[in-house]
Amino acid sequence: MAAIASSLASVSASGDKELSPTAQKLKDLIEDELDRNQSLNTVTDGDEVILKDSYPKFATAAQVETVNNIGQRTGCHTCGSHIETDPDQPWIGDHSYPTNLEKFALEALMKNDDRYEKRDSIYLFPQCYECSNEQATLVHTLNGLDAKGIADKLKDAGEKERIYRLIHGDDKAPVPYTNCISSSGDKVTVNEGAYIQKLGTTLGCHSNKNHRVPSRRYIADHIVPREFCTAYFPVLCEKLGVDLPTKFALRPQCPRCSGNQGGNMSAITKLAIQVSAELGVAVGKDTLLAGAIRRVAQTKAQLAAVRQKRLAQITQKRAAGAIVQAEKDARRAAKRAEAKVRKEAAAAAAAAAASSSASSSSSST
Ligand SMILES: [Zn+2]
Ligand SMILES: [Zn+2]
After folding, report:
1. Cβ atoms of residues 119 and 98 within 8 Å
2. Contact criterion met (CB below 8 Å) for 86 and 116
3. In this structure, what are the phi and psi dihedrals at residue 208, rounded to the nearest 5 degrees?
4. Around ion ligand 1, which residues have CB less than 5 A away?
5. H-helix or E-strand spanning residue 314
6. Residue 115: what pLDDT?
7. For residue 179, how far is its CA from the centre of ligand 2 (angstroms)?
8. How far apart are CA 270 and CA 190, in angstroms?
9. Average pLDDT of 229-247?
């Protein structure tokens, strides 16, 4: 009992304590991050994958599948977009011909399929995720073959067509600023990316013109960040006065929103460790989620109990005050009534005295 009482006292005491500038900065960062985790609409249990016992760095394949099924029904939990009909999701800038395709392999393709033209430069075309992944596997396969192996592969008409689309592209030839742009290097620059985005939204995927959207897969977004679910974090948040949610889940997010969600988590983690030392919170990251949920729930229950107790005290005080006031009012009213009676009696006596003196004087006249 004593232990509970003292922990209650520390909860209320720490809540009133003023935070250091560093702690205040951390609190702001955490609250910003929690804001970013807010969903567009009210999310019901069926609209997310609830995490109960473990909080893996990467969602499992089954969880991602479930999240994608949810996404097809609800859209992105941050912006509401349904990616299967959204051409304005981020397009990939595809280097063409692929920079990591071996020279001999490209020559073998050119020798066996005259639709490939000789190019002096590398171009960037808009490409969808699906084709990008398929292309990466194909390049790996072609690099592993020899010229004869590639020639044999192209004997299959279907396979020849697929390779042409993925390596050359569905376009006839590169026409800069019409279906592509010149590539400045291995990395797609911000400006190049912006132009690719423009081309992608109007033209679609250059490897398959039927691909009008860049991605059909939702990303499993962690609600809240993993660091928030470590054992020490809820304790720290309680000391900072941050209201941490008790529910941890995966929700479908579109690639655009995922990209926009700039990570300030590394700043939070660094500061959190510093402030933990300041506030005497032991940083232990081994116990995940189950413990964290319990800690948050316990803290919330403690805070609620403290609030309830305070409220009861206030109500009691107010009730007692009301009784005292009512008694005072009654006493005052009684006094006023008494005074009134006395005043009336005095007035009546004075009037009687006046009339008797008047009558005696008149009689004497
Ligand atoms: Zn979105
Ligand atoms: Zn595609």
Report:
1. no
2. no
3. -160, 105
4. 76, 78-79, 81, 254, 257
5. helix 290-364
6. 94
7. 14
8. 29
9. 84
Compute the distance between CA of residue 7 and CA of residue 69 in angstroms, rounded to an integer: 44
CA–CA gap between residue 185 and residue 122 (Å, rounded): 9
* Token reading at 178: 């019409």
Residue with tokens 């992105």: 76
Pick the ligand that lies closest to the CA of residue 260. 1
Question: Tokens standing for 206?
Answer: 């250059």
Q: Select the more confidently predicted residue: 89 or 249.
A: 89
Amino acid at 173: A
Q: What is the pTM of this model?
A: 0.67
Which helix (H) or strand (E) segment holds residue 110: the answer is: helix 103-112
Output the six-digit token pair for 311.
Answer: 């409220």
User: Facing residues of 182 across strands?
Assistant: 123
CB neighbours of 248 closer than 8 A, spacing ≥ 6?
A: 50, 51, 55, 222, 223, 224, 229, 289, 292, 293
Give the pairing type, strands 249-253 and 49-50: antiparallel
pLDDT, one tens digit per residue, over 102-138 is: 999 999 999 999 999 999 999 999 999 999 999 999 9
Residues 6+ apart with CB under 8 A from 289: 51, 52, 53, 54, 55, 229, 248
167: CA distance to ligand 2 center in Å? 12
263 alpha carbon to ligand 2 midpoint, in Å? 29
Instruction: Point out the ligand nearest to the CA of residue 86.
Output: 1
Do 78 and 254 touch, CB atoms closer than 8 A?
yes
Compute the distance between CA of residue 40 and CA of residue 160 in angstroms, rounded to an integer. Answer: 46
